DNA sequence: AACTCCGTTGCACACGTGTTCAATGTTGCA
DNA sequence: TGCAACATTGAACACGTGTGCAACGGAGTT
């Protein structure tokens, strides 16, 4: 009879727990190094040194401290640690559409890589690709993160200045920054678009469609214009679509709108996700036969593109190379800046003729 | 000519920046409230009060402080703030396979919900669904997070004890905890499996397959056994598969292995992702006609299941309800524990006969 | 035996913030 | 005018940690 959603059942198992691990039963706070020091009968410094690599502690004291810490369940307070040493292990990650396959895969590998390097990932979800990410980055500042990775959206110039002033590394993926003082990681859009165009031309396509989303990110624009230029250079005709979000449904809508023109015999979707929607609509709604009747190429090589129902020919960028590039940028010394280009390959599958 | 991966181009734009915003040019650290206080000609307390809601500051001082803070680019240090007030806004999130659609969607909505509530998301990627998440949770302890959300894996009892002792809220999704002192959020697996079984029986399936992954999570086991029981009650035969990770490829492998038996006319895959692989292999590798020849039902209703190429009939759980349940659990008072059940619905699409 | 050197140890400070407490100035009322 | 009530302000403490510095003791060397 609730408003519509879920059944709730409540319990409260322990009325007044007599926890023998805690000496002072009221305190709900964490164990501190003072507690450990008292129990081990040493000074607090000794505790700190025990948990600091390369510090000078006698084996005897070390063992006593470790034993006491184990018994009390002591964990170093990273906040106090960071406050003191002012070297945080936090890396802020900003992204939108976290459930879209491309971003999700990036986030998956990035968070894993950070963890393996002993860095922690503070994740901030920019709801919309169009939304302003400045407040999110300022939030990351408040946590004194030493680096910020931007997966979606473009940080305004004021934010870049602030990063520079505070010594925060700013790493931007697939967003063209006009300023040279930011780490940038780019997929080789120019080459990828050229490969796609040449492949469609080789399949003897004469009139091709280019499908972009309405949020004209620099990456999408670069792919689309390069592709168009190459096709036109070789005497082909190009029709362009730029509406809607970067989503499956946009590909569907584009197919419905563009394939009314039956002369179109090829399509380059600047994102695999849109390519899959385009492909589905072409096959199931519009009875186009791919690749006999129509050739389709995507970009990104998301996992779903390899699924048997699609078998999409696409321009692939290696996720592991992309992630390695981000991690490499994190290692740069202060002031050192790089622009890294992620190479691309044409992955031949079954959606292009011949 | 590099080992294989990426082209690097290096610059170092600003040799010795004369930054007029910082008075002491060497200091690369963040602006503190002391800096702001000096500039505004007030005490540090006034600065703190200006940024504390409900504190007593005169309009004049407040304006001077805000102006100075703006000019200097001051951001409150959340680490020091948390250290002092010992009430952190951090929420630890542990999950594996972050790029699998189901987890990615959960993470997307959860991180967005947390952000909207003014809480921050500390993301820890448990590489493998099988890997031990205890060290990750201990890492979260070190950041003094007030709550931990576990999307994958099962926290050992010692961790649960530790959470209890330290007043950390532990929220577990779709993992059956035998202990009653943890917040648990479960999808209604029993009902879902029953709905799937009844639907296949109504389609006159006589011999059905159940597809699980090799990582026998409580959720998967509950779905599979309930389904098997119901089918057998009605005189149907059941064949079960339990191998491999929870992935598309597992569905493919299951189809190849199980569909050699041509009598099988129905399948329940306990996860949509596996269902899509099963479906693809059945159609494209084994020339089975779905739904005429074979009926398939999944579970979770991930976005891809609605794509035209699949149009998968599945048992759906609402992601927004799931997320709301997590956020609701975060609001519980200390010691209050709940078990929330997420309702499920059979979503009729095109992969079941009749 | 005296001295130097080195490993250990504890004290004290610093990190940046919120908040209590007493002091100060200001207003309102009798 | 005198006094109380009140808003505002700054000094001081606490949060939990890492580390420089001086003190200490034992071992090795002359």
Model description:
The structure is a homodimer of 354-residue chains. Chain A contains 12 helices and 13 strands. With 354 residues, chain A is α/β, with parallel strands linked by helices. Chain A folds into 3 domains: 33-76, Orthogonal Bundle (434 Repressor (Amino-terminal Domain)); 88-186 and 320-342, Response regulator (Rossmann fold), CATH 3.40.50.2300; 189-318, Rossmann fold. In chain A, the strands form 2 sheets. In chain A, strands 3-2-4-5-6-12 form a 6-stranded parallel β-sheet, sandwiched between helices. In chain A, strands 8-7-9-10-11-13 form a 6-stranded mixed β-sheet, with helices on both faces. Chain A binds a DNA duplex (30 and 30 nucleotides) through residues 30, 32-34, 42-49, 52, 55-58, 61, 76-86.
Given the structure, what is the number of helices of chain A?
12
Strand order of the largest sheet of chain A: 3-2-4-5-6-12
Quaternary structure annotation? homodimer
In total, the number of strands of chain A is: 13
Number of domains of chain A: 3
């Amino acid at each position: 009879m609730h408003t519509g959603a879920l059944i709730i059942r409540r319990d409260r198992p322990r009325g007044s727990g007599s926890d023998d691990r805690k000496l002072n039963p009221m305190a709900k706070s964490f164990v501190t190094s003072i507690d450990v020091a008292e129990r081990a009968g040493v000074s607090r410094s000794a505790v700190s040194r025990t948990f600091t690599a390369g510090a000078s502690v006698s084996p005897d004291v070390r063992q006593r401290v470790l034993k006491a810490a184990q018994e009390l369940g002591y964990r170093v307070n990273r906040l106090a640690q960071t406050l003191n040493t002012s070297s945080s292990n936090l890396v802020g990650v900003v992204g939108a559409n976290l459930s879209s396959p491309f971003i999700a895969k990036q986030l998956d590998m990035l968070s894993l890589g950070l963890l393996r390097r002993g860095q922690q990932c503070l994740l901030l979800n920019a709801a919309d690709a169009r939304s302003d990410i400045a407040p999110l980055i300022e939030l990351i500042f408040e946590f004194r993160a030493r680096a910020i990775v931007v997966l979606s959206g473009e940080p305004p110039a004021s934010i870049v200045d602030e990063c520079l002033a505070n010594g925060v590394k700013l790493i931007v993926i697939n967003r063209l920054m006009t300023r040279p003082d930011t780490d940038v990681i780019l997929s080789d859009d120019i080459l990828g678009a050229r490969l796609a165009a040449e492949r469609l031309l080789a399949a003897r396509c004469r009139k091709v469609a280019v499908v972009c989303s309405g949020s004209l990110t620099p990456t999408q624009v670069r792919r689309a214009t390069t592709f168009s230029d190459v096709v036109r250079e070789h005497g082909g005709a190009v029709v362009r679509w730029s509406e809607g979000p970067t989503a499956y449904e946009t590909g569907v809508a584009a197919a419905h709108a563009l394939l009314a023109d039956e002369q179109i015999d090829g399509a380059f979707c600047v994102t695999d996700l849109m390519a899959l929607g385009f492909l589905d609509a072409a096959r199931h709604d519009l009875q186009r036969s791919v690749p006999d009747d129509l050739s389709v190429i995507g970009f990104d090589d998301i996992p779903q593109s390899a699924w048997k129902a699609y078998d999409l020919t696409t321009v692939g960028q290696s996720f592991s190379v992309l992630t390695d590039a981000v991690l490499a940028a994190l290692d740069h010394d202060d002031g050192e800046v790089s622009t890294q280009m992620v190479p691309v390959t044409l992955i031949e599958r079954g959606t292009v003729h011949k």
